[in-house]
Design goal:
The chain is an alpha/beta fold and 342 residues long. It contains 15 helices and 11 strands. The protein is globular.
Length: 342
Amino acid sequence: MKKALNLTRRRLMHGLAAAAMVIAGTSIGGSAFAGTALRIAVPDPAESSVGRAASRFAELVKEKTDGEVTFQVFPDGVLFGKDQNAAINQLGSGALDGLILASSVYASFEPKMNAISLPYLFTDYDQLKAYLSGAPGQELIASVERLNIKGLGFFLRTFRDVTTRDQPITTAEDFKGLTLRTPNNPLFVKLFQALGANPTPMAFSEVYSALQLKAIDGQENPVEVPYNNRFYEVQGELNLTQHIADSFLLGLSSSAWNKIPEQYHDAVQAAADEMIAEHDASEIKQEEEIIGKLQEKGMHVNMFADGELAKVQDIARGIYGDFQDQIGADFMQTSLDFVKSN
């Protein structure tokens, strides 16, 4: 009886030891069991283009890493207090794991990014896609490494348009005297000054109330922005000026990238590439649909009269020289040469 009791006791102790090893392996041996859980922030609502892109990226990462790497999406700028410049600082410091934000905002930190937004640089979306996925885009992605940001790729935004309260824009003269909200970016400010408007840099979180209170006459963004943020409630005119190209950069903090086990780096990059290809294929079609939805909400859609677009383009391209030093003469020439040959 005593021998049997000792045997049972030994088996019990062996079982407890094995359980302790499993627990230790889960909590200390860590990543193989717990995986890598990260958060990614976007500035717009979950149902917006960028919100859907982030969700698709998270879905693909989970699929391609068998759930070992996961991203939780936080929309509406909640992780960075809707301050987009602060978001880039937080990403670089590692306070944010991941971020999808416009290249025009990054331009405040990396002036080379202004090349994408040179007014009327691109004639169509095929040219823009080729630029972002080609050598110029890769050079821009490499340029944010000094900010401790790992860029995974650009995806396009549709061209930017101006909305106004009650002033249609169909001629170059129609810009004169309009108070328009712009991002806090000298290129945007300079463009609208050249066109005779009064550009007013303002945090995006303040735009709706400023439009509602008539502190400003209008704003400019890709059409999804006035639709997703209900600007049609305080704006009556959608002017298809198509004046500036923009893009979104999908980036991770360097510290978040290093948290992801190296064996999954290729899978995460592949998830980004697949999401970007899907997004770019659908974005242009959605632009037409959104214009229709804004019309249904009561907005009037305006286009330049014959000969007026050329006038606006001439004025806009006249500011290129003012940004050569910021962008860098070599990279500006690279950009100009690229669009001429594509």
